[in-house]
Task: inverse folding
């Protein structure tokens, strides 16, 4: 194992976050506060509670997930895409590092960033609403697994993307609709049966539901199924990456 | 000692069907400076990229210090430093960080004293806290060299190192190259500037169309292909070459005021002396003489045109 290399790549990526502190950390905090103020007052004044939890508290896990997914996918993808774009990737490709070590460095940094931002949002939310965490261990487990899985997903996008347009498609156009329609801001019990069924095709539903369960013990789907779904998605990402590394897909011609 | 790099029957066909290498065999000796010459698209960069692990070979194999570059990539890549052709840098990093990063990804423990020495040697010390985007092109080139040296490689690849580089950097660079060579580092450089190969290389390889056309010691190459010319400026106009000088390869200049003698390295020992005495005997006087030796460039152009 080339630990020095992992440390260097991880450190390099974390330094990039420090340089871009404003957009990395402060902007998600502001956005989340806006959600609380606007959604909390506009909708919260009409929906008092959902399954016994106040509306503001109910949406907190979903808001954390929304930001975590977006951040992990963008950070995971830009980390590897940018060297590819500027050409500096030659150095990593010619260094005595295995692709898995490169992956651990980049994905580790992207997941760390996502987790930090998730925790900052949790802290911000606690200023606005009452937060109760029924299963702290499960909460952390959901958070960590989701961060890793979506950073891996981002890494795949970063290798696949040939331009900035493709790079941004997933975090901008795929993650937000799936999160909004995945029960972040409502319980899917509130939907007609047909749309409830459709919602079950949305992978983000399982993340939000399981994560919310770790807070308030209320869930749209069984939390075990949520964990299994994350596991499945993690396995899919790892297999795709395994294939990419083996074939040198868009990295080594 | 086995060669430090052994390229065997190496082929590379890119996804678009382009055959960049068509079976290259090349042994590079420890501690030598090898210059690879060739026009654009000849396959030089592909060859280097395969040795360094950036491009996968299609066929054949490459051994570095006896280890296969694909199977045993950790061993081989840690021995190699690469200065790429393109000026690719992380714009927002500082010089110090980017050079330290290179050492790290090569798996070496931090060594600030060594990094300082490298930066000073390349006149980068004063710029160590500058962001790379603030540097000129020449300075960026120095940074790329510093990055390649940061992990103390035993083999250094310089891909077109002097493209767009000013005189002072070129001088610094050759100083570094000489110092590395004294330390036993093997250096492979590709270049368009043939004078450079002529000046510093021990051996010269010529690549074109994905094939190694020639690989020879520079001096032997010059001897074999290098023609010499002796030009005599005459004091009086000469209409024809006298019969007594017919045995020499002589031609008369257009205005009849000069004589040109062509000879090879082997002939040079005695032919000049006898030519000069024959001239005196024929009563031909000259006021100046000059000799010219064909450069690697002439040889290179002749080779590439001949084989194309």
Result:
């Amino acid at each position: 194992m080339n630990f020095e290399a992992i440390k260097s790549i991880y450190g390099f990526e974390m330094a990039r976050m420090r340089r871009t502190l404003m957009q990395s950390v402060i902007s998600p905090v502001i956005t989340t506060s806006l959600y609380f103020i606007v959604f909390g007052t506009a909708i919260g004044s009409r929906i008092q509670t959902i399954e016994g939890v106040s509306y503001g508290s109910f949406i907190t896990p979903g808001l954390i997930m929304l930001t975590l997914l977006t951040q992990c996918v963008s950070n995971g993808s830009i980390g590897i895409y940018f060297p590819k774009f500027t050409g500096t990737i030659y150095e990593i490709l010619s260094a005595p590092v295995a692709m898995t070590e490169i992956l651990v460095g980049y994905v580790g940094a992207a997941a760390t960033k996502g987790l930090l931002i998730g925790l900052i949002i949790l802290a911000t939310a606690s200023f606005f609403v009452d937060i109760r965490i029924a299963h702290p261990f499960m909460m952390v487990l959901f958070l960590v697994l989701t961060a890793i899985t979506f950073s891996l997903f981002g890494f795949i996008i970063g290798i696949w993307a040939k331009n900035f347009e493709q790079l941004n498609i997933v975090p901008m156009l795929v993650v937000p609709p799936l999160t909004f329609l995945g029960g972040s801001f409502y319980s899917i019990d509130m939907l007609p049966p047909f749309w409830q069924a459709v919602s079950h095709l949305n992978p983000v539903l399982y993340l939000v539901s399981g994560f919310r369960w770790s807070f308030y013990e209320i869930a749209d789907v069984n939390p075990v199924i949520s964990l299994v779904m994350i596991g499945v998605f993690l396995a899919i990402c790892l297999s795709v990456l395994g294939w990419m590394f083996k074939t040198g897909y868009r990295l080594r011609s | 000692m086995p060669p430090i790099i052994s390229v065997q029957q190496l082929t590379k066909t890119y996804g678009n069907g382009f055959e960049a290498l068509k079976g290259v065999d090349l042994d590079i000796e420890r501690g030598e400076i090898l210059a690879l010459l060739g026009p654009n698209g000849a396959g030089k960069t592909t060859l280097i990229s395969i040795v360094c692990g950036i491009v996968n070979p299609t066929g054949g194999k490459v051994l570095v210090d006896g280890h296969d570059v694909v199977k045993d990539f950790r061993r081989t890549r840690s021995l190699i430093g690469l200065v790429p052709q393109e000026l690719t840098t992380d714009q927002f990093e500082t010089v110090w960080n980017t050079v330290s990063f290179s050492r790290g990804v090569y798996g070496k423990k931090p060594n600030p004293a060594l990094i300082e020495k490298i930066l000073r040697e390349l006149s980068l010390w004063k710029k160590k806290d500058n962001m790379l985007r603030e540097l000129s092109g020449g300075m960026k080139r120095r940074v790329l060299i510093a990055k390649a040296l940061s992990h103390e490689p035993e083999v250094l690849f310089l891909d077109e190192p002097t493209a767009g580089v000013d005189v002072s950097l070129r001088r610094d660079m050759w100083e570094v190259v000489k110092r590395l060579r004294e330390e036993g580092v093997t250096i492979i450089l590709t270049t368009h500037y043939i004078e450079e190969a002529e000046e510093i290389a021990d051996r010269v390889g010529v690549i074109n169309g994905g094939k190694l056309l020639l690989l020879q010691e520079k001096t032997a190459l010059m001897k074999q292909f290098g023609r010499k010319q002796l030009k005599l400026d005459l004091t009086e106009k000469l209409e024809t070459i006298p019969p007594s000088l017919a045995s020499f390869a002589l031609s008369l200049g257009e205005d009849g005021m000069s004589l040109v003698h062509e000879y090879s390295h082997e002939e040079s020992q005695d032919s000049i002396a006898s030519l000069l005495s024959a001239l005196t005997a024929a009563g031909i006087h000259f006021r100046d003489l000059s000799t010219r030796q064909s450069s690697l460039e002439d040889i290179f152009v002749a080779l590439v045109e001949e084989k194309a």
Notes: Chain B has a mean pLDDT of 89. Chain B has two domains: 5-222, 227-293.
